[in-house]
Design a protein that fits this description.
- The structure is a single chain.
- The protein has about 180 residues and is mostly helical.
- Helix content is about 70%, strand content about 5%.
- The chain has a three-stranded antiparallel β-sheet with strand order 1-3-2.
- Helix 4 crosses helix 7 and helix 5 runs antiparallel to helix 6.
- The two termini are about 30 Å apart.
């Protein structure tokens, strides 16, 4: 079902796959998420699926409609501006702390991640967005990893999924 460990619960497996499908645009903004259809798709019961959908609602990727079920969260200019500003602020705080607290191992990880990104960006042929996005993500994670704040990194990770969703939507609109 996904690339996560087999020890994941069914709810976690559903959560990760649905999250990926929403962020990547397979499930479109405003699309109704029919529990019966999803039960068949994932081969799971209603309970793990509802748990996954509730967690996605808590993360802001899914909306719960009273007595109507679940829907992929809509997109709006106001939301993208808020997410971008919040994401940038969080990442800047983490980067400032990383610069203060980082050691030689952190510096080495930044240089290595930058090198990997530069290899992709230096290619003459076009690379798939997903390949570039992974290298760019790894570089940014390396930059902030030296902040030594698990809480700050977790907040950034949660906001990143929403930010990434908008980046992918924009990329798909222009290509």
């Amino acid at each position: 079902m996904n690339k996560h460990e087999k020890s994941d619960t069914l709810a976690n497996q559903c959560f990760y796959q649905l999250e990926e499908d929403i962020v990547c645009g397979i499930l479109k903004p405003g699309e109704k998420l029919k529990v019966e259809h999803l039960k068949e798709r994932f081969g799971v019961g209603q309970s793990p699926l509802r748990e996954a959908l509730s967690r996605l609602a808590a993360s802001g990727l899914v909306d719960i409609e009273n007595n109507k079920g679940f829907r992929v969260a809509d997109v709006s200019e106001k939301d993208v501006r808020d997410i971008y500003e919040t994401f940038t602020n969080i990442e800047n705080i983490a980067l400032a702390q990383a610069i203060q607290r980082g050691d030689e191992a952190w510096e080495s990880s930044v240089v290595a991640a930058l090198y990997q990104l530069a290899l992709i960006e230096g290619r003459k042929e076009t690379v798939p967005y997903s390949v570039w996005a992974e290298k760019n993500y790894n570089f940014h994670v390396a930059l902030i990893s030296g902040c030594n704040s698990p809480t700050l990194l977790q907040i950034r990770k949660e906001i990143y999924r929403k930010f990434d969703r908008y980046c992918r939507i924009a990329y798909n609109l222009w290509n």
